Amino acid sequence: VHHRIVIIGGGFGGLAAAKELRDPAVQVTLVDRRNFHLFQPLLYQVATGSLSPGEIASPLRGVLKHHPNTSVMMAEVLGVDVDRRRVILGHQATAARSELPYDSLIVAAGARHSFFGNDRWESFAPGMKTVEDALQIRRRMVMAFEAAELETDPGRRREWLNFVVVGAGPTGVELAGQIAEIARYTLRKNFRRIDPRDASVMLVEAADRVLPPYSPDLSASAQRSLERLGVTMMLATTVVDIDAESVTVRPPEGPAVRIGARTKIWAAGVQASPLARALASATGAELDRAGRVTVEPDLTLPGHPEVFVIGDMNRVSDGRGGVQPWPGVAQPAIQEGRYAAVTALARIDGERSTKPFRYDDKGSLATIGRLSAVADVRGARFAGAPAWLAWLFVHILFLIGLENRLAVLSRWAISFVSHGRGQLLITGEQAAEHAGRAAATSTPLDAELTSTMARRT
Ligand SMILES: Cc1cc2nc3c(=O)[nH]c(=O)nc-3n(C[C@H](O)[C@H](O)[C@H](O)COP(=O)(O)OP(=O)(O)OC[C@H]3O[C@@H](n4cnc5c(N)ncnc54)[C@H](O)[C@@H]3O)c2cc1C
Fold first, then answer.
1. C-alpha of 85 from chain center
2. Is residue 174 annotated as a catalytic residue, yes or no?
3. Do residues 291 and 276 lie in contact, with contact meaning Cβ atoms separated by under 8 Å?
4. Could you tell which of 48, 329, 365 is best to mutate to test the pocket of ligand 1, judged by most ligand atoms within 8 Å of the CB?
5. What whole-number distance in Å separates Cα of residue 46 and Cα of residue 407?
6. Residue 303 phi/psi, 5° resolution?
7. Splitting the chain (457 residues) into consecutive groups of 10 residues, what average pLDDT does each group show?
8. Are 166 and 125 in contact (CB under 8 A)?
9. Which of 8, 48, 206, 315 could lock 323 by a disulfide, CB 3.0 to 4.6 Å apart?
10. What predicted TM-score, i.e. pTM, was given to this entire model?
11. 10 Å Cβ neighbour count for 367?
12. Choosing from 55, 151, 159, 174, which is the catalytic residue?
């Protein structure tokens, strides 16, 4: 009988584990609620119309088609029974439930954004984690320019042209930079009543600098690049309220300020998959404020050497009462996925003492816009065009599938020459809903149009 390994999640960690487990000695099942792996680092390019979703996603069955020992199962994981060694599944197509037994389990269900207890903000300021999130942000952003073009009241028009990004980590910086580029270059000459260059992009950050995990000189360089693009920095500033028309912030000094802005994007804070909490309570493992479960130095749950929890869901114990400082990004998830696979195989072979996981930090890269990025690669810190080229190279290298690599490379080449973005479309059910709602209510412009038509007939 083959040793059964179940992997929960086909993201960076889970997929790295699955690739490493191409071994006839084990029978692998990869479960994900989606039928594709999503390359999240380029999600903001979908939100800002540079790339289409298919170019940054790869169907899991296709990626693993040459792994005969591996099957892919599209299902929602509802829970794990660690005592009976079973994963509880909900089947999306039929709403049926089933159980999947395992001998070893690798849990890599990732994280979602967190609104720090203010969940009602989500409907006004979407976060970005899924393809749907990115398309919603794209729709809201493009719709805001359309609405501004139609708005006759200067105050309300200003609200449509104000864009607020909350959180100046890599995602917030990338989004703010891209929206500013769209307003400045891509949409130039596209409108007749507004000048998109009048748009104001504000970046709100609670820390006193952008890209807080980076060194101060790289933060300063990123800030200068953003300012050159016209982005307004609101540092050491916290968000205290968000509604449909505005965001209220508390600056470092003085009273709270309400900013009229229809488009808000949430790029602050993440919360681990709820499976982390369930696993912690089943095994007595610790859980931190971001909902991550603390695992042993070999990435397993205390008392359960057969259950690995990896990637954005975990914090790794240093074995001395503390935790490792590794960031919640793709590289640790990939390396942990490989480690979990190799360790599980070694244990099947009877190896008892396995080395603890060690993270090999290859560095970090964040891009701001055209020819503008910051890089910290093994202690070498640089910015500008060289960092941007490094960013470009790494992202093409890590993107899954030759077809996606070629598609993204050619799109970037075209955009670089033309400043254009082929994907600035307003699509989806909500777009149709918007149109329906607008038809049902009479705005001054509607009235103007109706009376003109009435005069004509
Ligand atoms: C917008 C954005 C930009 C980012 N940019 C960068 C970057 O530039 N560089 C970088 O290194 N990192 C970046 N990251 C972080 C990086 O993407 C994560 O650290 C990485 O994806 C973590 O890998 P993971 O395997 O833990 O989880 P994920 O890659 O998130 O994978 C989790 C998988 O589990 C599945 N899943 C979750 N719950 C269930 C369930 N209950 N049932 C079934 N399936 C489930 C999901 O569908 C998903 O496929 C970014 C993240 C985001 C959101």
1. 31
2. yes
3. yes
4. 329
5. 14
6. 80, 0
7. 94 98 96 97 94 95 97 97 98 92 98 92 95 96 97 97 97 95 93 97 97 93 96 97 97 96 95 97 96 97 97 96 92 98 94 89 91 92 95 91 91 87 81 54 43 39
8. yes
9. 315
10. 0.92
11. 26
12. 174
Nearest CA to ligand 1 atom 50: 41
In the reported structure, the alpha carbon of residue 352 is separated from the centroid of ligand 1 by a whole-number distance in angstroms of 31
The rounded Å distance from CA 339 to ligand 1 centre is 18
DSSP 43-102: HHHHHTTSS-GGGGEEEHHHHTTT-TTEEEEE-EEEEEETTTTEEEEE-TTT--EEEEE-
CA atoms of 138 and 71, how far apart (whole Å): 34
Q: How many CB atoms lie within 10 A of CB 39?
A: 24
435's tokens: 């149109």
Show the tokens assigned to 240: 């205290």
pLDDT at residue 428 in the model: 77
**Residue-level pLDDT at 453:** 40
Give SS3 for 233: strand
